[in-house]
Amino acid sequence: MARIVLTCWGSHGDIDPFLGLGLALGRRGHRVAIATLEYYSTLIEGAGLAFHPLRPEIDPTDASRVHRIMDRRRGSEFLLREILFPQIEAMFEDVSAAAAGADLLISHPVTFATPIVAERRSLPWASAVLAPTSMFSTYDFPAVPPAPWVKSLERLGRWPGKLVVGVARRETRKWAKSLYEFRDRLGLGEGGNPLLEGQHSPHLVLALYSRLLGDPQPDWPAHTVITGHVFHDAPHGAALAPPLEAFLNGGPPPVVFTLGSSVVLIARDFWLQSVDAARRVGSRAVLLAGSGRSAELDAAFVGRQGERDVIAVDRAPHSLIFPRASVVVQQCGIGTMAQGLRSGRPMLAVPYSHDQPDNAFRAKRLGVARIVYPPRYRAARVARELETLLSDASYASSAKRVAVEIGKEDGAQAACDAIEQTFFDRTAQFK
Predict the structure, then answer these.
(1) CA angle 83, 53, 77 (to 5 degrees)
(2) pTM higher than 0.85, yes or no?
């Protein structure tokens, strides 16, 4: 079988699906390596896959940097213009080293060096996107973080989509100046915009999300396959901690509050507002507060007689905790939202930046979610939204319907099938 190298970069929401895909390919007999941040080396190697470091090297738990990355207006520009594009040559060197002896490369939306290595070495490659926003379709354009309300204009025709994608093309071209210069030094020519058509493989584009979030569009690459989500939350535990299990068994389903693995680092007063809101609607609450905050928060909400209506823990596997919630309040990163859709529970979306506002819009369109943007996240407002989600039966009904459809999908296997059908012949030999 083949030696396949997956390249990915970012938070757990980026890494976990690629790890799940890598493990699925390994079960089919392929030799799989993942090139990503050094921070995840133990995780990758512990899962039995080969690891290769990928620059730029950053600490995903650096709160000050995450704060800048998650800025609603300038976060994407900071990430791309200040962190990723200036390091394109270093990333190229690392992908080149990982690709030695490889038969196939699979890229993540921001591993911009992977298409360059594939082109330079004439290697076949597939590209993968994790959320609809990465497709940048003018027919189904993303709700962009600085102005997510523009998405509501799609009812007016195609011109808003052309406007949004046109602006994205113009601005990101400025950000990617160092990448264009690097391609020129390699004698490859300018190529496509690395965030738009340039990120997509000419052979296979894997859309690793549910078709419920968006159908194929006329301006997508023709060789795109929507696989369904690749679920893999084993890195976050195989069971619920005993205190959390006891809390869940001790009363009615609680509201679960989470901000994923990145936004949780900059939560500020989110937890206090959340507990206040839950108490206003008479609900218990679970706070997935992240390392360093959970013990302090948990102690703050124990009653005088040792009774509690709130528990705070570092983390819990979303696949195990979400189905036991009444409502899931979350930031709508694609990994967290996918688990929310699979759980069959209504959601309150609190989207910050990047793909989150667009994911939240699509969850709302499915009838499973309501949205409160972070500047308006105050207990009174959140309580009103929770009351609606808990009292309006249409949200629970839609959530159950969506969960049934998500449950029919097997993103990892569908992606493996697409890879093998594209790059292998019937005798399982690499084409």
Answers:
(1) 15
(2) yes
